[in-house]
Amino acid sequence: MTIMQAPRALYIHIPFCTNKCHYCDFTSYVLKGQPVDQYLDALEMEMERTVAEWPPEEIDTVFVGGGTPTVLTPPQMERFLKSVHKHFPLAPNAEFTMEANPGTTDIDKLAAMKEGGVNRISFGVQSFDNGLLERIGRIHNVDDVYRSIENARKVGFTNLSIDLMFGLPGQTVELLRDSVNRAMELELPHYSIYSLKVEENTLFHKLYERNELPLPPEEEEFNMFILLMDLLNSNGYAHYEISNFAKPGYESRHNSTYWRNEPYYGLGAGAHGYANRIRHVNIKGITPYIDAASTKLPRLEQFEVPEAEAMEDLMMVGLRLLEGVPASRFSKQFNGQTLEDKFGVVIHKLMNDGLLEAEKSEDDVIYRLTDKGVLLGNEVFGAFIGFTG
Which of 30, 316, 337, 357 is deepest in the core (most CB within 10 A)? Predict the structure, then answer.
């Protein structure tokens, strides 16, 4: 298979965790007893086979997710990061992000990360309330958060982000206000704030089915979203994507690859990749992944995305960015076909409903969410499903 556009973004999955959170449905496994070194061997074999089949150009962004990548020991971390540089040519100004759990980043590990080229850390904080943290199955506490940020700054990291969650069981607007205020006191350049989704195959889903999950009422969750937007915007953070806020220049470049529906490499157990309108999903289990990677690319499935579906994907993820979707980007991705021809009817309906707006220039039109559309994003995104003119 020939790639028409080599990906310039690389995602790598480290599927090990200290424990499984109550809401998590990601490919992740409790660390104890896992063959971590054999996994890193298999990951490097997948890197070798990937670059042989799909030769990379310069890589602009790397994102190491999980799981909790920072459960690797400093020697494992050093070895892993060397393998990334060995197989993928990183641009001089590449953004290299690693997810981290507070409490798993001591000075030695952070030093290994920085030495290995990591220049951005995303901490999974979720809340600044110890009771809430315990309720959702996190094993860190608020003191761990402060210590981890302090350690990262000591080692020289400046591009730091934290994830927070809202709509959690037992959470109130005031608890969220406290968490957001305490997060902003850290003066970090980036914050991601997500609403809880109760996914299948999680403890929360089992509790939800038994009517034992005290989720906030829908109106309360709506008020939480409005509150966090007001707090972050008033403190100088641009709301650049539905769930993400940043100081100028600190937007997540890697995640913007997904939101613009651009190609990316995906390596590791359970990882997804996308290039030349081919999506793949890797084998999820640790031992099956290791066994498969010893002889071939460890694919669970691989399939071509139909053009109509790719068009829908571009609109649904692209409109998550508050910069919007330029008609020129649509035409470039789909060989000159126009956004107006394919989605004109649904776009104009959404504009009439006050959910989308258009900014016109001499040679382009950019469609973006209105303030009302931001609050009703799922309604906007859903309008494009199954609709191509």
Answer: 316
This prediction's pTM? 0.94
What whole-number distance in Å separates Cα of residue 6 and Cα of residue 107?
Answer: 36
Q: Where do runs of H (alpha helix) occur along 54-141?
A: 74-87, 107-115, 130-135
- ∠ CA 319-323-327, rounded to 5°: 70
Residue ranges of E strands in 82-189: 90-100, 120-126, 159-166
Q: How many angstroms separate the Cα of 361 from the Cα of each of 265, 356, 367?
A: 34, 17, 12
> Between the CA atoms of 122, 124, 128 and 131, what dihedral angle is there, to the nearest 10 degrees?
-170
SS (H, E, C) 204-255: HHHHHHCCCCCCCCHHHHHHHHHHHHHHHHHCCCEEEECCEEECCCCCCHHH
Q: Average pLDDT by consecutive 10-residue portion of the chain (389 residues)?
A: 72 89 72 93 97 94 94 96 98 97 94 97 94 87 95 97 93 94 97 87 79 85 94 96 96 96 96 93 96 96 93 94 95 91 94 96 93 93 79
Helix (H) or strand (E) holding 340: helix 339-352
> What's the Cα-to-Cα distance from 171 to each of 91, 105, 150, 157, 344, rounded to whole Å?
42, 27, 27, 31, 41
AA letter at 296? K
Q: What is the CA radius of gyration of the chain?
A: 21
Distance CA(159)–CA(188), nearest Å, equals 8
